Amino acid sequence: MQKHPDGSSPRLTLLTLAQDLGISRATVSNAYNRPDQLSAALRERILARAAELGFAGPDPMARGLRRGRVGAVGVLVDEGLSRAFSDPAVVDLLDGLARELQADGLGLLLHAGRADDEAALRPIQDAAVDAWVVLSMPDGHPAVAAARTRNRPLVVLDQPVLPGVPLVGIDDAAGAAAAIAHLLALGHRRLGVLAMPLRPDRQEGPAGLARQAGATYQVMRRRLAGAASAAEAAGLSWDRVPVVESAANDPDAGARAVAGLLTGDDAPTALFACSDQLALGVLRAARAAGLRVPADLSVVGFDDSSAAPSADPPLTTVRQPLRDRGRELGVLVRALLRGETPPAPEPAPVHLVVRSSAAPVGGGGAADARG
Amino acid sequence: MQKHPDGSSPRLTLLTLAQDLGISRATVSNAYNRPDQLSAALRERILARAAELGFAGPDPMARGLRRGRVGAVGVLVDEGLSRAFSDPAVVDLLDGLARELQADGLGLLLHAGRADDEAALRPIQDAAVDAWVVLSMPDGHPAVAAARTRNRPLVVLDQPVLPGVPLVGIDDAAGAAAAIAHLLALGHRRLGVLAMPLRPDRQEGPAGLARQAGATYQVMRRRLAGAASAAEAAGLSWDRVPVVESAANDPDAGARAVAGLLTGDDAPTALFACSDQLALGVLRAARAAGLRVPADLSVVGFDDSSAAPSADPPLTTVRQPLRDRGRELGVLVRALLRGETPPAPEPAPVHLVVRSSAAPVGGGGAADARG
DNA sequence: TTGAAAGCGCTACCAA
DNA sequence: TTGGTAGCGCTTTCAA
């Protein structure tokens, strides 16, 4: 393929091609970027010769430098990619985002924001991207600051709330309140809450009021606030509702964190898990403890991820439109990249989806399924 | 923050900073790239002033052009990101890859290789990446060709086999043979196979010998060949073993594809699903058909993805070291980027992991669990 | 419709 | 230890 008469193989560039054809470099550039700037015939000739020589078109980096655009949007995810992608909710959301960005030929450049490693920030600061999407990170995470240093357009999903930065959010408090209200309506009074991490310190176990108030994951602060107000509206004192924090937002961690809460005389009859991933963990822990769901224990999740309907039993959960929100992130990014200043989007609506993981209290008789 | 005396706010560059400090641009560059080329004191001064001015360091694109490196590795996935990432096997693999690349500060630039759209190829060809990783794509996929046009280092996972291109593979035939052998050893004689797509045409249903032979997904060709040889070694004629093709590698599609195979007098007593995703679909379809697994139907999967052990029942499956393979891809990419020519890696070992989705034939008596 | 020329911002070589 | 300088390959005015 590489037919170059003189044996050498100089890197193919616009200039090489132009000289080969005896025309100007600008014209070759136009063949790729502004077809209307030259005759169709000439353009054909150029493209044909390019194919012949194996020239793939203008160099992406040089073009990027000149135009100030690379065709990539950075995505900052909390912790490793592994945990992020093993959450079906994240996957759905990313899918919506990717689809929307595809319209402009933009790819997704993934970077994990490991908080522990100061040196891991450089790759983020030095990433060649046109914009950043921050996917649900805690307050004060250094990776977010690193992503901001270039002053590129930036959009946040859920958290952190940053002044002047478009946020694609939902009404977390209302969602959590709906979950609690549902459990209360089913007659439950001994409630429990399984929370996602409140801070990125991997702490696990009971989370008192102080810990709750100090949450740097704002989503959790909002959801707990919503849950609290719903509980108190029903006359339940929030400080008597056990809140257990999971070390991570995955089923294993959730099961581990909640295990201790499930036994004992005053164990909750109903649990609000702040994500479907955690709810899955509750299901697992309940099974391990010999509890039937929903007969012995009612569970409500949050997200309505694709795992929710096929869980066993199918999860009653708070639905948020994940794919749409991903798309909305993409719409915002595209607008920002066009130089527009889109209005701050409204929080997306959430609502309870009733399946079969929550039932009236005492509906299954005593918990005698053990052993 | 943007303190610029003369009101204007010219884009901050190395030169700006250099002039501000009354030193040369090269020295500022060195402060970032070769700390040993200047005194620690001067470097400190430069960095401090940069922070003061809000200069984030050398521009990634300009640096990319100059160095010929952007710090991103392209990842080409088949179809949309959604399907790719909803497969736990892919997620584990990507996690291994990302971790390995992180050592060099490389991010992952995701691009979906939609075969249908000729214009969708430009973003791939024009992506600013230092290398490409092709994740299990079919023969002749135009996106792979697009990724190759820049002559950047390229590494393939599983398929397609490309001359001169490092391939990180496994012994697919041996894995499939082990699965079939296991079922045969359990006494099963009426076998069936649920295949991943054989071609990217979303065809679903029985796949005859011709279709099997024409598979452009080489992984499937290899696995079917392995299965066939194991079957024939036991005296079973392969053309009597029903092979059903799924339209996609996900549980839903798998359940849909296999449903018809599960009923009838001569329905298989054992099924080899060519991926865990598909095996999950079989489990679902079996339940829908009132069949108990493994009593009425034995199932063996492939991958040992993180979904396998927690399936109900836990999947007997062929294990491949996903995370390690992801890491190996990363190792190869890094070596290639260093200009080395690493030896073609050995196929990773696979072996059967026996859990409880496969049992001796007839072990559960007649299939009387229906209704 | 085509071409000439001016940088985009940076790094790496070489000289001081 | 510091600085001058030559491009990396391209796009885009502007003029022909």
Describe this structure in words.
The structure is a homodimer of 371-residue chains. In chain A, helix 1 crosses helix 2 and helix 9 runs parallel beside helix 11. Chain A is built from 14 helices and twelve strands. Chain A has three domains: 45 residues, Orthogonal Bundle (434 Repressor (Amino-terminal Domain)), CATH 1.10.260; 115 residues, Rossmann fold; 150 residues, Rossmann fold, CATH 3.40.50.2300. Chain A is elongated, with a radius of gyration of 26 Å. In chain A, the strands form two sheets. The first copy, chain A, has a seven-stranded mixed sheet, with helices on both faces. Chain A has a five-stranded parallel sheet with strand order 2-1-3-4-5, with helices on both faces. Helix content of chain A is 39%, strand content 14%. The longest helix of chain A has 16 residues. The N and C termini of chain A lie far apart (72 Å). The first copy, chain A, has 371 residues and is α/β, with parallel strands linked by helices. The N terminus and C terminus of chain A are likely disordered. Chain A binds a DNA duplex (16 and 16 nucleotides) through helix 2 and helix 4.
| Uncertain stretches of 5 or more adjacent residues of chain A | 1-8, 365-371
State the name of the first-level CATH class of the largest domain in chain A.
Alpha Beta
Query: What structural class do you assign from the helix and strand content of chain A?
Result: alpha/beta
**Count of strand segments of chain A:** 12
Mean pLDDT over the full residue set of chain A = 92
Largest sheet, spatial ordering of strands of chain A: 7-8-6-9-10-11-12
- Helical content of chain A stands at 25-40%
Largest sheet of chain A: 7 strands, mixed
Query: Using only CA atoms, what is the Rg of chain A?
Result: 26 Å
Shape of chain A: elongated
